Amino acid sequence: xxxxxxxxxxxxxxxxxxxxxxxxxxxxxxxxxxxxxxxxxxxxxxxxxxxxxxxxxxxxxxxxxxxxxxxxxxxxxxxxxxxxxxxxxxxxxxxxxxxxxxxxxxxxxxxxxxxxxxxxxxxxxxxxxxxxxxxxxxxxxxxxxxxxxxxxxxxxxxxxxxxxxxxxxxxxxxxxxxxxxxxxxxxxxxxxxxxxxxxxxxxxxxxxxxxxxxxxxxxxxxxxxxxxxxxxxxxxxxxxxxxxxxxxxxxxxxxxxxxxxxxxxxxxxxxxxxxxxxxxxxxxxxxxxxxxxxxxxxxxxxxxxxxxxxxxxxxxxxxxxxxxxxxxxxxxxxxxxxxxxxxxxxxxxxxxxxxxxxxxxxxxxxxxxxxxxxxxxxxxxxxxxxxxxxxxxxxxxxxxxxxxxxxxxxxxxxxxxxxxxxxxxxxxxxxxxxxxxxxxxxxxxxxxxxxxxxxxxxxxxxxxxxxxx
Length: 469
Ligand SMILES: Cc1ncc(COP(=O)(O)O)c(C=O)c1O
Description:
Helix content: 25-40%
Number of helices: 16
Oligomer: single chain
Structural class: alpha/beta
CATH class of the largest domain: Alpha Beta
Shape: globular
Bound molecules: pyridoxal-5'-phosphate
Number of domains: 3
CATH superfamily of the largest domain: Type I PLP-dependent aspartate aminotransferase-like (Major domain)
Distance between the termini: 34 Å
Strand order of the largest sheet: 4-11-10-9-8-5-6-7
CATH topology of the largest domain: Aspartate Aminotransferase, domain 2
CATH architecture of the largest domain: 3-Layer(aba) Sandwich
């Protein structure tokens, strides 16, 4: 382990934990290999024993290392027994063939969160629209496209947001991006600067957190409770932050909605500090009880909210189409900025989505999916309740396309998820969404692709069998 380059802002135990975890997942430390004793490592690195102890405790609780009395501490030999398929540890170890880490998942696995019901996607309509789009392509569309995105799609999005999300905007305020990260990148090139501090929900959507950190942002994790982001804590921890990233409709991953008092407090803080609120409205379209909540942006009278939405959950993630809505006062800045960037890619998928929306298919598809997801969500919740009983606490959620269930404190969600993934189950560990020491163990489970109650029952039984071992 290199002793140099400790980062001043991250606690030492966390850095040490991360270094070991990375070395194990990259295959530099192999299953069964011995790691130094706490005393030796502490003296080698000139850190307190308690620091190493904390890092080792985290590694043990997540199943990376095991302590065996006189036999010392070793990388868990169990990691070697996981089959190659679905096992990120082994895939990374064959580093000559695959030298990078990838989030790519080829097959839809049972429980996989974040993907819509692919069997219910209106393929016939989509293929008809693709033919139409190609046949009717105008010469203006074949020229260099507008880097802000295809204008009819921006128009359709502005109309949809006005009706469905209570957001009054024009197409000039809408920018098409390559996924949500494309929207974040555009923000980093415009209103945010390297070194800017921002609040980030904790637990929170880790791909967004990683991306912003890579872009040089300094993030303060702000805890989330049953009313969503704890605004008052954010004000204590980083009162002068320049931005806050929030998922107000359906917090990622806990699923809670940001309460109205917190919404108002967040807007008041942003107004007072001239800070930006980045609203990630990624799956608000799906709500099964009560009325859909209007977007935070709809309350934004002082124009502090930068709103993002995506087609990943309502159509499919492979489209890579998302959008950003900026206040009128920033329109010009953003139009100038996009003139110097590659834009959202080919015009063809944008034209197809525009036609899908303009011809009324989008509204019909959403209506159909809401009904279907209410049924499929029921399959999963019933299976979990009947098979696990009270040992699993299911977070009541009014919307979204996944279910969160909490494990008791002794159960490590990461170890369970590793075992589940080795069995071809796509559950995710709540602790992965946590920026520091995970506060709670839980499982995040998608239900959209369970086509009948029996499928959900069979998958839940396989999961329960792992928990019993
Ligand atoms: C919280 C959250 N935000 C945004 C996104 C959308 O990402 P993208 O548009 O890049 O697919 C997702 C997708 O999983 C998400 O979970």
